[in-house]
């Protein structure tokens, strides 16, 4: 298709789907302080400033029981003014100084760690241990904190001899040696077999541990030989006593393929499970969720797997289900939190239009703006599932049972006598009586609000003789647990019914008016990122119609859940089935209720 494939897709394209189980070749390392079972949820506050993270810990994450924040890389990075300060500057370290990044100063970072710890929330740092900066347009600095550098030369840290001999891009992804020793997208590849490099990387990580950081995402871990990861991890200090001491939590970014599987990295810590991401995303995208109670079966053992619906790379390079999909995506993240497999990582995104390189909201000098969840570009989708974090924490230790389905798109299950959740990935409400093992009482529906300090701001349900009757909203969920017993106290209303038509709208009548000149026999379709618009498949898009009185305006209509964000393009389909895409960036839209319960999206062919 070519229209929405960014550079990073080159990366994704070569990552096969096969999960190969490679025998363990590395000696087991000391036990790590894995996130405690009852507070294990990670949220990736992608590109947030340090002070914004601190505020979120205090206002939202701590009170709702989130366990940890994955923050964007804190070390000094390249500054690419000529390229509009793309987000991926961070993935090109030029020193390990925390003094000044686009997200704030070292003092800001320290303050964030302290304030989050006081709120009961850990900080996990995205640690780049495989490489330093690249070349080409990247130039030679100075870096964000003023350090001078050039590729293979970082004064006072690394010189040419500290980088591998390969000095070219990874070409053959089936050759494990190349994958681990050549360059990932032209980034200078550290010789992690050398003691100097191991010591230097570990000193950086221990600086962070000393500040109170409790864990690490090891970026591009698959590109670092297992023994080198082991050597670095074994050099780590124990975490702050507030976190119970012990080694930092480590999860490694391993995009498993036929050449390198997750199994060879599990001795050093947890690993990202990309097959889970593909499975859950396709299931919710297709509305085919009835079979998901066994999600994760056959993948990396759950106590070693970090799982997610989308991450900052997949949402750009290989989007299956992302924040642009609105309700269905939120539902998938809710499901991930309700299901016991893996350590869940919730994504929190910002939007972009046009290039996927686009950085976060920022000032003219490339410094990131504070987050404002009510402003349009910060999506803050973790807030939509905050109540489900309390569900996860409350049902820890209880397996899945009492599964109920209704067609392909509906699934409900118990988590023992501690919780019950129902998911509806169809366009109409699912009304029925559910049988549970919950003690009788009034329960707050944490799928549709939060339960904090005994206050429920969501609909509540009466469980009587173990049963409750609910109308699970279209593309929505209902979730009850024993840690959230209480009646709705929401001043905005407590109805568990979908909002009445004419008031707030749950569905937006979305109309497209496209001005397109065609020749006889051509059709015009709207094709976009959501299932209703064909999930980028022209044949499944929305067909528009015209007649003598409206031509060249083509019109069509589709109903979308309120708040659905999506990208789209116009295409012409010729009688022989060939497809012509319009030029330029994808169009972006939100089917919100700002104009009542219907919206019209207009445009002209480009
Ligand atoms: C990762 N995990 O293994 C990160 O999750 C991913 O976001 C990083 O790529 C990657 N590894 C390297 O840390 C991103 C971004 C790339 C970008 C790199 C480096 O997705 O597009 O590459 O960060 O900033 C950019 C240019 C690329 C160029 C490279 C080196 O897009 O065209 O390659 O810099 O100059 C010649
Ligand atoms: Ca390497």
TrEMBL record:
<comment type="similarity">
    <text>Belongs to the glycosyl hydrolase 13 family.</text>
</comment>
<keyword id="KW-0479">Metal-binding</keyword>
<dbReference type="GO" id="GO:2001070">
    <property type="term" value="F:starch binding"/>
</dbReference>
<protein>
    <recommendedName>
        <fullName>Alpha-amylase</fullName>
        <ecNumber>3.2.1.1</ecNumber>
    </recommendedName>
</protein>
<keyword id="KW-0378">Hydrolase</keyword>
<keyword id="KW-0119">Carbohydrate metabolism</keyword>
<dbReference type="InterPro" id="IPR013783">
    <property type="entry name" value="Ig-like_fold"/>
</dbReference>
<dbReference type="InterPro" id="IPR013784">
    <property type="entry name" value="Carb-bd-like_fold"/>
</dbReference>
<dbReference type="InterPro" id="IPR006048">
    <property type="entry name" value="A-amylase/branching_C"/>
</dbReference>
<dbReference type="InterPro" id="IPR006046">
    <property type="entry name" value="Alpha_amylase"/>
</dbReference>
<dbReference type="InterPro" id="IPR031319">
    <property type="entry name" value="A-amylase_C"/>
</dbReference>
<dbReference type="InterPro" id="IPR006047">
    <property type="entry name" value="GH13_cat_dom"/>
</dbReference>
<dbReference type="GO" id="GO:0004556">
    <property type="term" value="F:alpha-amylase activity"/>
</dbReference>
<dbReference type="InterPro" id="IPR002044">
    <property type="entry name" value="CBM20"/>
</dbReference>
<dbReference type="InterPro" id="IPR017853">
    <property type="entry name" value="GH"/>
</dbReference>
<dbReference type="GO" id="GO:0046872">
    <property type="term" value="F:metal ion binding"/>
</dbReference>
<dbReference type="GO" id="GO:0005975">
    <property type="term" value="P:carbohydrate metabolic process"/>
</dbReference>
<keyword id="KW-0326">Glycosidase</keyword>
<keyword id="KW-0106">Calcium</keyword>
<dbReference type="Pfam" id="PF02806">
    <property type="entry name" value="Alpha-amylase_C"/>
</dbReference>
<dbReference type="Pfam" id="PF00686">
    <property type="entry name" value="CBM_20"/>
</dbReference>
<dbReference type="Pfam" id="PF00128">
    <property type="entry name" value="Alpha-amylase"/>
</dbReference>
<dbReference type="InterPro" id="IPR013780">
    <property type="entry name" value="Glyco_hydro_b"/>
</dbReference>
């Amino acid at each position: 298709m070519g229209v929405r494939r960014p550079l990073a897709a080159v990366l994704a394209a070569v990552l096969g789907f096969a999960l190969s189980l490679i025998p363990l070749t590395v000696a087991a390392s000391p036990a790590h302080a894995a996130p405690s079972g009852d507070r294990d949820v990670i949220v990736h506050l992608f590109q947030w400033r340090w002070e914004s993270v601190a505020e979120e810990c205090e206002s939202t994450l701590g009170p709702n029981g989130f366990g940890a924040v994955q923050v964007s890389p804190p070390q000094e990075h390249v500054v690419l003014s000529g390229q509009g300060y793309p987000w991926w500057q961070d993935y090109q370290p030029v020193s390990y100084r925390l003094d000044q990044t686009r997200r704030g100063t070292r003092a800001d970072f320290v303050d964030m760690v302290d304030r989050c710890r006081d709120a009961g929330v850990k900080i996990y740092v995205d640690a780049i241990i495989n490489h330093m900066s690249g070349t080409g347009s990247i130039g030679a600095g100075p870096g964000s904190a003023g350090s001078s550098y050039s590729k293979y030369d970082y004064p006072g840290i690394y010189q040419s001899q500290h980088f591998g001999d390969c000095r070219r891009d990874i070409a053959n992804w089936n050759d494990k040696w190349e994958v681990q020793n050549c360059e990932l997208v032209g980034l200078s590849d550290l010789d992690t077999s050398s003691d100097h490099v191991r010591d230097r990387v570990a000193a950086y990580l221990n600086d962070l541990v000393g500040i109170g950081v409790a864990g690490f995402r090891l970026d591009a871990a698959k590109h670092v030989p297992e023994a080198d990861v082991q050597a670095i991890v074994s050099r780590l200090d124990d975490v702050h006593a507030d976190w119970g001491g012990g080694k930092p939590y480590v999860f490694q970014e391993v995009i498993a393929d036929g050449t390198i599987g997750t199994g060879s990295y599990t001795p050093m810590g947890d690993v990202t499970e990309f097959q889970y991401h593909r499975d859950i995303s396709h299931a919710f995208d297709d509305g085919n969720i009835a079979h998901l109670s066994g999600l994760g079966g056959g993948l990396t053992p759950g106590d070693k797997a970090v799982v997610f619906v989308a991450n900052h790379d997949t949402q750009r390079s290989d989007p299956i289900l992302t924040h642009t999909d609105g309700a269905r995506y939120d539902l998938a993240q809710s499901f991930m939190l309700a299901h016991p497999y893996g350590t869940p990582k919730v994504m929190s995104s910002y939007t972009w239009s046009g290039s996927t390189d686009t950085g976060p909201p920022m000032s003219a000098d490339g410094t990131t703006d504070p987050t404002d969840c009510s402003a349009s570009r910060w999506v803050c989708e973790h807030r939509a599932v905050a109540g489900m974090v309390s569900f996860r924490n409350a049902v820890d230790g209880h397996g899945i049972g009492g599964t109920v389905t209704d067609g392909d798109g509906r699934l409900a299950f118990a988590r023992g006598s501690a919780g019950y959740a129902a998911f509806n990935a169809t366009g109409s409400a699912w009304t029925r009586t559910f049988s549970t093992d919950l003690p009788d009482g009034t329960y707050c529906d944490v799928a549709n609000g939060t339960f904090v300090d005994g206050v429920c701001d969501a609909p509540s349900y009466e469980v009587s003789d173990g049963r409750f009757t609910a109308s699970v909203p279209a593309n929505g969920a209902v979730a009850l647990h024993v840690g959230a017993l209480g009646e709705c106290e929401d001043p905005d209303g407590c109805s568990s019914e979908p909002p009445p038509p004419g008031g707030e709208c749950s569905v937006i009548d979305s109309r497209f008016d496209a001005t397109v000149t065609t020749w006889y026999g051509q059709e015009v379709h709207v094709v976009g990122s959501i299932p209703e618009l064909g999930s980028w498949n022209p044949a499944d898009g929305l067909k528009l119609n015209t007649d003598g009185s409206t031509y060249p305006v083509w019109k069509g209509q589709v109903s979308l859940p309120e708040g659905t964000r999506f990208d789209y393009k116009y295409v012409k389909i010729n009688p022989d089935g060939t497809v012509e895409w319009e030029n330029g960036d994808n169009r972006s839209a939100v089917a919100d209720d700002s104009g009542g319960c219907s919206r019209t999206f207009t445009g002209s062919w480009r």
